[in-house]
Amino acid sequence: MPGQGTGQLITVLGASGLLGTAISRELASRPVRLRLVGRRPVALPPQPTALIEERRADLTDPGAVAEAVAGSDVVIHLVAHISGSGTWRVSDGDTLAERVNLGLVHDVIDAIRAQRPARRPALLFSGSLSQSARVPAALAASTQPHELLTAYDRHKLAAEQAIADATAKGLVRGSTLRLPTLYSLGTDPVDLDRGVVATMTRRAVEGRPLTMWHGGTAKRDLLGIDDAARAFTAALDALDAVAGRAWEIGTGEQTSVAELFTAIARTVSRQTGRAPVPVVDSTPDRHAMPTDQLDFVLRSPEFRNVTGWAPRVPLHEGLDRIAGAVARRHRAVTA
Questions:
Q1: 13, 22, 52 from 2: Cα distances, Å
Q2: Would you say 199 and 150 are in contact if contact means Cβ atoms under 8 Å apart?
Q3: Does the pLDDT value for residue 119 go beyond 50?
Q4: Which residues sit opposite 210 in a β-bridge?
Q5: Full-prediction pTM beyond 0.85?
Q6: Whether the Cβ atoms of residue 127 and residue 160 lie closer than 8 Å to each other
Q7: Which residue stretches, if any, does this entry annotate as coiled coil (predicted)?
Q8: Half-sphere exposure of 29 (CA within 13 A, CB side)
Q9: What b-and-e string marks burial along 124-150, b requiring 16 or more CB atoms within 10 Å of the CB?
């Protein structure tokens, strides 16, 4: 795709995912060279400023990561293993999940080491607030993988620590952004099938009850995907300040699952003119994880203080935007 960018080369691994698409849109407006690596085409602005190269690749293939990151000034690593109905519900002993969630990070570091770039490239990684949900905030940075409840969190933390080690050794300038629960704002039609908020919004539009587990008491920090993308560009703009450690990203607002699902039902009701669908408790299914009952909410404002980033889209506005998008698609399909 043509563009005018002639600056640094930024490679996005996992560019066609929910977060990757939003970050790619954000970076497309910058005067850079942008290499987007994913399994599907990426929805981009019609007249990007960046000079954009899209690549289809299975990064688990031998040599695929090295080829993807060759010559990069910045690597944004967003690849995650997709298993069943959720991207983060990973079983212990799932070797493919470990290969994707952890092994690919080692492949990136090994490729950079072998390529010996003249300037240390930046390496930004998408972590999760769930990595520190059980750990006091003061001790979160020293958490060890074996202390975490799920394989997904153990993979993410081990990858995060590998990036920190590579930064300490002078190979990269690395940083991890530990993200909360992300949700689509309905910008890209593909996003309407990704994440719990989109799933429950679609169920409500279809008139089906919204089912929750454990009474819906667990609290979540919900961040619109565009605000999450801006957190990554904020990290790039303040790289010297953020490199070498992990940062918690979020709104700091606590919303229980029950409150979220009730808000979705009411928001969809306003869009459709029908009564809100019921929100009911149900027995956890086979995908349930121990962390489903824990709270994942931002505890530290440090990233905001260092970078100046702050979320712009309040939850009620975000839910209204995605409900409108889902309702419009539903009307178009059923007309």
A1: 20, 19, 7
A2: no
A3: yes
A4: 279
A5: yes
A6: yes
A7: none
A8: 8
A9: bbbbbbbbbbbeeeeebeebebeebeb
Contact between 322 and 192 (Cβ < 8 Å): yes
The 10s digit of each residue's pLDDT in 253-279 is 999 999 999 999 999 999 999 999 999
What is the three-state SS of the chain?
A: CCCCCCCCEEEEECCCCHHHHHHHHHHCCCCCEEEEEECCCCCCCCCCCCEEEEEECCCCCCCHHHHHHCCCCEEEECCCCCECCECCCCCCCCHHHHHHHHHHHHHHHHHHHHHCCCCCCEEEEEEEHHHHCCCCHHHHHHCCHHHCCCHHHHHHHHHHHHHHHHHHCCCCEEEEEEECEEECCCCCHHHHHCCHHHHHHHHHHCCCCEEEEHHHCCEECEEEHHHHHHHHHHHHHCHHHHCCCEEECCCCCCEEHHHHHHHHHHHHHHHHCCCCCCEEEECCCCCCCHHHHCCECCCCCHHHHHHCCCCCCCHHHHHHHHHHHHHHHHHHHHC
Type of residue numbered 92: D
Residue with tokens 């306003």: 270
Per residue in 22-81, pLDDT (tens digit) is 999 999 999 999 999 998 888 888 899 999 999 999 999 999 999 999 999 999 999 986
The domains of the chain, with CATH numbers, are 9-182+222-248 (3.40.50.720), 185-220+253-297+313-334 (3.90.25.10)
